[in-house]
Amino acid sequence: MINALNHRFTRSVKLFLLFLAGCFCTAASAQDAPSHDFILSAQGHYGYIISHRNNVSHLIKGHIYGGEINYVFRTDGKQAWEQIHHYPELGVCALHLYLANPSQLGTLEALYPYTNIRLNKLKRNWKLNLRLGVGLAVITKPFNRVTNHKNNAIGSYLNGFVNLRMSYAVMLSKTWRLDAGVGLTHASNGAMATPNLGLNMATINLGIGYAIGNKDLKYIKDTIPKCIKKWHPMLIAVFGVRELEQPDGPKYMAYGAQINVYRTLNYKNRLGAGIEMAYNNTTRKYYQNDSVFNTKFRDIVTVGAKISYAFTFNKISLPVDFGYYIYNKELPFGHVFHRIGVRYMITKHLIANVTLLTHWARADYFEWGLGYEL
Q1: Which range has highest mean pLDDT (2-6, 99-103, 209-213, 243-247)?
Q2: Domain span at residue 325?
Q3: SS3 labels along the chain
Q4: How much is the pTM?
Q5: 188 and 51 fall within a common domain
Q6: 200 inside domain
C-alpha cells in the first residue's frame, strides 16, 4: 500500500516537472533567438525564515544563506509578446539554501524556470525586474515520526516551489552585469503529505552575470496590433490528492469541474468570474469520524462562485481566484476559498492546468487537470 502511494506521488511530481519544462521550453523556443545569446549568473542569498505561524517558530534557529546559478535567455522583440512585455528574460535557476537548522530542516535544493518582467523604461542601461518562478524543491530533512517529529512544517522531500523577486540589473560593460534584489520564497507540497504548514523565506541577493553571444543586443520595435477585447469561456476538469492531518496516513482523491468566463482587458490582463463544483473524499472521511455519518452525494459536494484575474504571458497564464461557497454542508475551513497557479495553452483551445486550492493561508490540495477554451 505504501509503495503504491509513493508511486502515485512520484508520478504526480514527474507530471508537474514535465508540465513546467514544457511551458518553459515552448516559451523559450517561441522567441526564435540564437541559442548562444544568453547570460550566465551566480548570486548569493542571505535572509531568514518567516514565522508565519507560532507553532513553526521552534524551527527557526538563525539566518539562512546560500547561492544560485542562472541560465538566462534574452528576448529582443522578434515576437509581438516580447515587445508587449518589454523584452522579458526567460531563465532557469538552480538554488541551494542552508536553513540554519541542520537536524530538523536540513537544506533546500530547488530547480525552477522563471521570467524576469521589465518594469522600467527600455532606454536606460539598468533594469528593474519582477521575477516570477515556479518549480520543484527538495527539503532534505522532512517530517519523520521517529527521527524528525518536531518538523511540523514540511512532510515530504519533494515540494512545490514559488519565488517572487524584485531585482535590479545593471550592465557594467557589454559583457558583465551586476544583479541585486530582494525576494520571497515558498515551499510546500499542497497537502499531498502532512504536515504541510510550508516554509516561507525572505532573502536579499547579490551576484554577477556574464553575457555570452550577442554583446550588442538590438531591440526590435514594431507596431503592435490593437488588442481584441472579447470574452473567453472555458471548462476545466481537475483532480487532486491530499492527506488528512495525521502524518503518514492514507491519501484521498478530490475531483472538480470549473466554468470560467474571462474578459480580455489588454494583452496582459484578463478579468472574469466563474462557478465550480467539487467532490472531496476527505469530507467523507470527516463524516466517518462523526457519529452521524451520511453517504449522500449532496452532503459531500461543494458549489462555489468566484471572481477571477489572470496575468497572461504568451501561452502561459497565472490565474488568481477569490471565491465563496454557496453550497457546502461541511465547512472545516470556512466559506471562503482562493486559488493560484499556472495554465498553459497546449493548442489554440486545449489548456493544461496546475493550480493550488487554498483557504486563506491554508493549502488544501494541488489541482491537476485539462480544460477547453472557446
Answers
A1: 99-103
A2: 231-373
A3: CHHHHHHHHHHHHHHHHHHHHHHHHHHHHHCCCCCCCEEEEEEEEEEEECCCCHHHHHHCCCCEEEEEEEEEEECCCCCHHHHHCCCCEEEEEEEEEECCCCCCCCEEEEEEEEEEEECCCCCCCEEEEEEEEEEEEEECCCCECCCECCCCCCCCCEEEEEEEEEEEEEECCCCEEEEEEEEEEEEECCCCCCCCCCEEEEEEEEEEEEEECCCCCCCCCCCCCCCCCCEEEEEEEEEEEEECCCCCCCEEEEEEEEEEEEEECCCCEEEEEEEEEEEEHHHHHHHHCCCCCCCCHHHHEEEEEEEEEEEEECCEEEEEEEEEEEEECCCCCCCEEEEEEEEEECCCCEEEEEEEEEECCEEEEEEEEEEEEC
A4: 0.81
A5: yes
A6: yes
